[in-house]
Amino acid sequence: MIRVVLPHHLRTLARVGDEVHVDLNDSATVKSVLEALETRYPMLRGTIRDHDTLKRRPLVRFFACGEDISHESPDSLLPDAIAKGAEPFFIMGAIAGG
Amino acid sequence: MSKVRLLVGTRKGAFVLTSDGKREKWKVDGPHFAGWEIYHVKGSPIDPDRLYASQTSAWFGQIIQRSDDSGKTWFQPGLAPGEPATTPDGMPKGESNKFVYDASPETGKPLTTHMWYDGTQHPWEFKRVWHLEPSLTDANHVYAGVEDAALFESKDGGQTWQELAGLRGHGSGPRWQPGAGGMCLHSILLDPKDPKRMFIAISAAGAFRTDDGGKTWKPINQGLHSQYIPDPKAEVGHCVHHIAMHPKRPKTLFMQKHWDVMRSDDAGDSWREVSGNLPSDFGFPIDIHAHEPDTIYVVPIKSDSEHFPPDGKLRVFRSRRGGNEWEELTKGLPQRDCYVNVLRDAMTVDSLDSCGVYFGTTGGQVYASSDAGDSWNAIVRDLPAVLSVEAQTLP
Fold it and tell me: Is the ipTM of this complex over 0.95?
């Protein structure tokens, strides 16, 4: 089980609480987590990564175990602590005004 | 007694304002989608309980929302309230927020670049839906004007969207360019007398017309004169801010351009300036009285670099002669120290016997006139910046 923490606006969109859980058949990567997340919550498709190119949206960032992994390959393995559910995978909106 | 419902999109959510036919007391409902930018909300003309909303965010992209109960509840098309979000085998049901430019060889005529601010070519990138225009005949059919400029349609109530690629396939795309607000398709007019005819406007490309249901398009900008582009009389490149049409006279169009208020009486084939005695002919919205096709409204703004009313006085100007001769309407509007803007989709009219006129400001006020503009009252004063206002006249 992977624990995922969504930013506020995506929680309201998906009508979920602070943390959501997804199960993976594959190894835990950013790509596999996002695919599982979007399958379970299809209203999130296009909000974290582009519909067409599947690239991370520019103002969205990914954090794992305190590290910014936004610019790593989406196929890189996530840390064991994320894969085993000990730590959540954070999806955050860049901090900006407005 | 008749009722009026106003659908207000703001920088931080949507609001629904309702009143009886007297339009004196208003109920304010909202915010819906709190914290999200709501560029536009519009109801179906044949099913007024069916509303479409464009919910958008620079962070999280584009969401289409729909209500089938006049705004009481909302859902993403394809996902009814409480309905499981996936099929039994786990596949997603809805793709209502998926806007993908058509690049297919059959219809897309792949057009990959437009002009960027610095004059270089830049690839088309989808950003948001500016305007939703429900069909005149089918509540499940709705058009979407988007940034970067293109026209999409949905025929299944907003569940899926397809680009009408003939517009970008016109061939002039490399000369389209973004204005300060982005390169947006913001105006969509459907001809009630000819279901194959549609008008759209893009900032900054100009106005276009189709006579074959959206397959092919022609620019209709002859007569426009724009000093801010290299060829002021170019076929495309003009920063059209809004266009309006009265349903009883669909060959007559009115336009608020970056500068200049314009009129066409031949479905856009030619335009002439009707700015007349306006204190400034810069502005964003333009709209038409529900029962008088020659009575039009604009809100003059000081200039392209100073987006507020001249002299700090918020004034609507009305022409009863289809332009050129304008009267200022000030009763009930602030006449000192007012520095708000009124955006292009933030003015609308109702169709009660005494025509109601409404507009919202970037300061969060929504003003209403129940006497065709003679006098005004603020329905609300402290909403987030208003992006759009649409009126529904209900039995």
Answer: no
